[in-house]
Design goal:
Radius of gyration: 36 Å
Shape: elongated
Order of helices and strands: HEEHHHEEHHH
CATH architecture: Up-down Bundle
Strand order of the largest sheet: 2-1-4-3
Oligomer: single chain
Helix content: 40-55%
Strand content: 15-25%
Number of helices: 7
């Protein structure tokens, strides 16, 4: 199997580009930081961090979204094969939407502030809050969700199909767990014990002896 780029649809291209962009924005752009400056000698200090080092919990969902999105593109290009009750486009759309909502939540609910003051001839100020990277990450995550939606539309997958696929996946998982807990046919046959007939060789005793022959002349 090889990666055939000619098999990629427009939706796959949107998913792939958005996933790569989200990866770059997560690790190479600043999402949160602060700065402080003072007028004495023009001293200024700033510190900021990327998404991976800022959001310790949310980062795992964003990373999973990137991996699933790129895997879906590889499946469309023929580089991977996947047998699953849930279409890859459904997973991409769902994870993309969830990542978008989570980044948007981080934008709305984030610590921020700043102040400035002067003491005599000394003037100082400081500020902290979100940076450009988180806005770019929001756009990239929304692109993944939009690409997954386009792929679902190309495949003719509706919301009813999504519910059916999710129900099938849950049912299959439940059946697998139940099958693992139930005893196997070999165990059931091994547990069946047949009681031996008393006095037989199966019980460990000697077989019954035939009756003795009658003496000659006793049949008159």
């Amino acid at each position: 199997m090889g990666f055939d780029i000619s098999r990629l649809r427009r939706s796959d291209q949107v998913i792939g580009v958005s996933a790569i962009a989200l990866f770059i924005f997560m690790f190479f752009f600043k999402w949160y930081g602060g700065s402080a400056s003072a007028s004495v000698g023009g001293v200024s200090v700033s510190s900021s961090s990327d998404a991976w080092n800022t959001f310790q919990n949310s980062r795992w969902l964003w990373l999973i979204t990137i991996v699933v999105a790129l895997a879906a593109v590889a499946i469309s290009a023929g580089a991977l094969e996947l047998k699953s009750p849930v279409q890859p486009s459904v997973l991409v759309a769902g994870l993309g939407a969830l990542s978008t909502a989570l980044i948007l939540y981080r934008i709305v609910h984030h610590p921020s502030g700043g102040a400035s003051s002067s003491i005599g001839a000394v003037h100082y100020s400081y500020s902290y809050g979100i940076k450009l990277g988180i806005w770019l990450g929001l756009i990239a995550a929304a692109g993944i969700a939009y690409g997954g939606y386009l792929a679902m539309r190309d495949e003719g997958t509706s919301l009813a199909d999504v519910r059916e696929q999710a129900s099938g996946a849950i049912s299959g998982l439940s059946a697998s767990v139940s099958g693992a807990d139930a005893p196997s046919a070999g165990d059931a046959s091994a547990a069946t014990v047949v009681s031996p007939v008393p006095g037989t060789a199966e019980e460990g005793g000697a077989p019954p002896l035939p009756p003795p022959a009658a003496p000659p002349g006793a049949a008159s």
